[in-house]
Amino acid sequence: MKLSKWKQFKAAVAFLKLSGMEYISGSLKSFSENNHTSITVGVAHQGTSKEGLELLLASLGKEGEAFVFHNNVPSTFHPKVFAFANPAEMKIFLGSGNLTKGGLYTNYEAFFEATEATSSPLSLSVENAFSQWTDETTSLVRPLSAELISQLVAEGLILGERELQARLQASSSTAETTGKQKGERLFGSKAVKQAPPRTQSVKKVPRDLDKTRTRTVEDLTPKIPPDGSHLGFVMLLQKTDVGTGQTTSGSSRRSPEIFIPLAARNYDSVFWGWPNLFTPDAAKAGKMDRYGVRMRLGTSIILVNMMTWPDKSDFRLRSEALRSAGNVGDVLRIERISDAIGHSYYAEIVPAGTSDYPRYRGLCIHPVRNSQKRWGYY
C-alpha cells in the first residue's frame, strides 16, 4: 500500500508497547509531518507501557496528535481500528491486534480490510467512533503529553517495560510450576514465525485467507526504514561528551569530541556517510575521517570532523561548539538535511526539563554497556 495516496491516518488500540512502536515510529513521524494523524490508546489492566507512550509522543510530526482513553468503571477500552483516508475514500482495518510486537507479528491475530467511499455508512461509522474516542470535552479522553505520562505512572495506570517484563516472567514461572505439579499440560507447544529485525524492511505477505494473522497488519504498518532512510539521530549525553577533562596547569584539555558508539554508527551507517564519504588518515593507519561536515547549530553553521579508529570502540564528532553546547543528561539531536541548502545536518541540544525533552529522550532506546548513555534513530 502506497502511503503517498493517503492524507490522513487514524488508529485506536487497547494496548501499546515499545516493542510495537519501534517498528512504526520512523514512518509515523515522517507521515505525520505533513498529514493529519490521530492515535488513541487505552491504559486498562496496565496493558500499555510508559516507554511505548513516550515513543509514540516522540513519533508525532507537526500534524500528529495522540490521546489516552480510559474509563474508571470496569469497562475496558478495547478497539483495534486503523484507517487511512483521503477526500475520496477510506481504507479500514478492523481486527484483534494491538500496537505491540505480538499484535503486529507473533500473535495469532485476524483483521478485516475494506476500502470504502468516505461517504459510505461504514466510513461514516468509523469516523464517528474516532470522533468519540478523541473528544476532549468528556472526562474519558486526555491528549497525550509528557505530563500526562507522568500522571499515569503516578496513578499506577501504566508501568515501565522492565516492571511489566518482570511480572510476566513471574506469572510464567508460576504457571510452569503449577503445570508440573499437575502433570502433563493440556496443550502442546509449536514455534511461531518470529518478528523481523527492526533494521530490515518487512516483506510483503501474499494475501491469502488462511494467512490473515499478520498480513493486513503488515499492509497497514509503515515499513521499517532501510539503512540510510532515518531522518534523525538522538543520544543522551554523558560526561565523556561534555566534560572539560583535565584543567590543571600543565595538563592537556580533553579534545572537543562527542563519543557515539560504533553500534549506533553501524545501525544506520549511511546516515553518517560511512564509509563512502570518509578518507584514510595518512598519519594513522586505519583511521578514517570525514572533514568539514557542515552542521547548523542554532543560528550558526559549524564545521564538524567525523572520525573513527580501528582500535577505538566509538565514532567521534569533533567540534568545540557542539561539545560546549550541552550538559550531562541533555539530548543531542542531529537531523539530516539536503546539502542543497548549504549544510548537511541540523544539530541541537535538547536540555533536560524543556517541553521537547521527553519526546526526544523517549527515542533514546538503545543502551550502552557500562554507561548511562542511550541512543536511537527516528
Q: How does this structure look, described?
A:
It is a single chain. The protein has helices at residues 18-31, 50-58, 101-106, 121-133, 146-154, 161-182, 215-220, 239-242, 262-267, 320-324, 357-361, and strands spanning 8-13, 36-42, 64-69, 80-85, 89-95, 111-117, 141-143, 232-236, 257-261, 279-280, 288-297, 300-308, 314-318, 331-336, 345-350, 366-367, 374-377. Strand 16 (366-367) and strand 17 (374-377) form a beta hairpin. It has 378 residues and is of the alpha+beta class. The radius of gyration is 23 Å and the shape is globular. The protein contains eleven helices and 17 strands. It has two domains: 3-159 and 193-220, Endonuclease Chain A (Endonuclease, Chain A); 232-377, At1g16640 B3 domain, CATH 2.40.330.30. Strands 8, 9, 10, 11, 12, 13, 14, 15, 16 and 17 form a ten-stranded mixed beta sheet that branches.
Brief overview, please?
The chain is an alpha+beta fold and 378 residues long. It has 2 domains: 3-159 and 193-220, Endonuclease Chain A (Endonuclease, Chain A, 2-Layer Sandwich); 232-377, Beta Barrel (At1g16640 B3 domain).
Principal-axes shape call: globular
The total count of helices amounts to 11
String of helices and strands: EHEHEEEHEHEHHHEHEHEEEEHEEHEE
Radius of gyration: 23 Å
Q: Could you report the average pLDDT, rounded to the nearest whole number? A: 83
Unreliable residue stretches: 199-226
What's the story with the biggest beta sheet? 10 strands, mixed
Key descriptive features of the protein:
378 residues, alpha+beta, Endonuclease, Chain A, At1g16640 B3 domain, 2 domains, 7-stranded mixed sheet, 26% helix
